[in-house]
Amino acid sequence: MNATLLTYKHGSHKTLWIGLLGAIVVIIGSILFSYAQGQKKEAEKMNPTKAVPSDTELQTKLTKDQYHVTRECGTETPFQNAYWDNHRAGIYVDIITGEPLFSSLDKFDSGTGWPSFTKPISKDKVVEKRDSSHGMERTEVRSSKSDSHLGHLFDDGPAPTGQRYCVNSAAMRFIPVEKLKAEGYGEYLSLFQSAQSGEQQPQGQ
After folding, report:
1. Across the strands, what pairs with 126?
2. How does the average pLDDT of the chain come out, rounded?
3. Which of 30, 69, 76, 110 is deepest in the core (most CB within 10 A)?
């Protein structure tokens, strides 16, 4: 009888340890799965060339103003938008795809109440189209990747380009220079490092 009792207890302990081990494996597996999902979402967020969502998705992901500007060629109110008076160093990316569009190094105060730039980060990031709406002849600027309406291009900008890219804040997201690497735009840090080197050079060089 004693031998039978000892065998029973030994079996119970073994079953308990197996159960605990299984629970630990499940917990660790859940943690690793959650971490992988988080990393996947972060990678998608940081991907500057992610696919353009469907119009249905955009209506749920974008704010009313963002959708109106990017998909309905709307214009936000001057002096009442996110970036018209933003003086921080960084880049401005497409609100939909994250594609880099403009740099703070090319931003200037146009007095119009909208973010204004002398040029895009790269000419292939934007597309220029004729715009005859509202009884005016203008040049519309659109994002090449998402085909979003950004704003308009005018020929009254400062030197050296003489151009003014007048852009709606709602079409962009600003990434400060200190967060460029963390958000997947580390390659653009060199723009600001070069600018700082240039500022430190003695006059005449």
Report:
1. 143
2. 83
3. 69
HEC per residue, the chain: CHHHHHHHHHHHHHHHHHHHHHHHHHHHHHHHHHHHHHHHHHHHHHCCCCCCCCHHHHHHHCCHHHHHHHHHCCCCCCCCCCCCCCCCCEEEEECCCCCEEEEHHHEECCCCCCCEECCCCCHHHEEEEEECHHHCCEEEEEECCCCCEEEEEECCCCCCCCCEEEECHHHEEEEEHHHCCCCCCHHHHHHHHHHHHHHHCCCCC
Cα angle value 140/175/69 (rounded, 5°): 30
Taking only the tens place, the pLDDT of each residue in 150-194 is 999 999 999 989 999 999 999 999 999 999 999 999 999 999 987
> Catalytic residues, which ones?
166
Other CB atoms within 10 A of residue 129 CB: 11
CA distances from 88 to 5, 13, 99, 178, 197 (A): 76, 64, 19, 10, 18
Provide the pLDDT for residue 41: 43
Half-sphere exposure of 15 (CA within 13 A, CB side): 6
Residues 115-142: what's their mean pLDDT? 93
Number of C-beta neighbours around residue 143 at 10 A: 24
Identity of the residue numbered 180: L
